[in-house]
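User: Quick sanity check before I run a bigger batch. Here is a single chain. Can you write out its predicted 3D structure?
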Amino acid sequence: MIFKKIIKTSVILLLTLFCLGYGLIYYTDNHKKHITYSKDDFKHYTTFSDLNTYKDASVKESDLENLYQKLENAGQQVALFKIKNGKVYVRYKMRPYLYRVFNVFEVLQKITKRSKLNDSTFLLFYADMIEEDSQKNLFFENNTPLFVFCRNVEWVAKHKLLLFPDDHVMGEWAKKKLYDSWPRLFQTIIRANKKYSWEKKANKAFWRGNWNFRDFEQVMSRCKGDEVCFNNAYSSSPRGKLVYVLKKEAPELLDVDFAAHKISQKHKVLANKYGLLMENFVPKEDQLKFKYSIVAESFASTPSFLWKLLSNSVVLKQDFPYEQWYHSTVVPNKHYVPVKEDWSDLIEKIKWLQNNDDKAHEIALNSTDFIQKQLSPERIDGYIASVLNEYSKKVLFDGQLRLKDYRDTTPFWYKKGLMFRGLKNFIYPLHLKNPIFDNLKR
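Assistant: Done. Predicted structure follows.
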């Protein structure tokens, strides 16, 4: 009898402690200090200069609705967000990478608890980038602005594409450990910096990364099993040249290889068939063992540039005609060393850094200090709030968009699918019998 009472009391005590601990975590997470930044803190970002090209109240809600419908009908990955009285709503249809919409949605919800967001309506294109020049007509027919994660710097009308932090910077979905987000990665790299001082780092340039598997499949289809054709095709690609050509020319300067932490079974079979090295994965914190860290672009602007700038290593960034939201704030040869897109000056740049170690160390310190002060997770939240509040001045609320067309919750089945199956780029539910999800079908 006494034994049963002890067990019962212990269970109640454990449950009480668990509830208190979870409640404390929830309270801390939702009651962080208020965001106190303003647009003056971010005036050197290109998004604010782009917004200045629009007059106040010059963007109609009906124009945003029309552009959303046009892009949606064309099968584009676009979502329509609305902020009203401190609440966030979103319209969307089932498309690849939809988890990014939920990610932005949850981050905005968190920000509304720490800062005042003005009422506004905005469009977000949540694919990696606008791929073809032919697609530009869909986006640039009128003066309606659109938030994007990445844009081509050579496009004349690029100011209509407003740069927004991508899903690798966002942090809410990453708390479920689906992928590394900036809030977690920021702390990981800071800790690793203490472990690997400049003097302990290896005097080589390091890179690990994935194949661009869309190109990979195209090459596989074109070469039809011909390994010579395959090797020629990928040796001429930027990442392929880095691994297959330059590595052989200067193995004493380069530690570069293809690697994948997670890869689909379909791609794994193709990769193994052609002898690609997919077991060379190196955790980000261990990549700090090297003095020089290479940023190799691929399909769109790679998110690794941000955390490598924090790594207390010199970043060698490949030139690329696409930019992200923070690129205008980092200065070549002060925060990183630019390298030509074809890698023709990479070896020369590495040798120069080796012969000028003090200057190399200075560049590494400059970038690390800059990221810590200017691109911390808290400051990025401030950037998002400032951008959206400045953007809200440009929108004329004409009452065309009805709140009942929006959602303020993420479907449970979708969250559950992401939690138990891991991130999938394409998630289309097989059974959506609930009428509430009817308009999610393509």
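Residues 25-31, 172-178, 416-442 have pLDDT under 50 and may be disordered.

User: Great, the batch can go ahead then.
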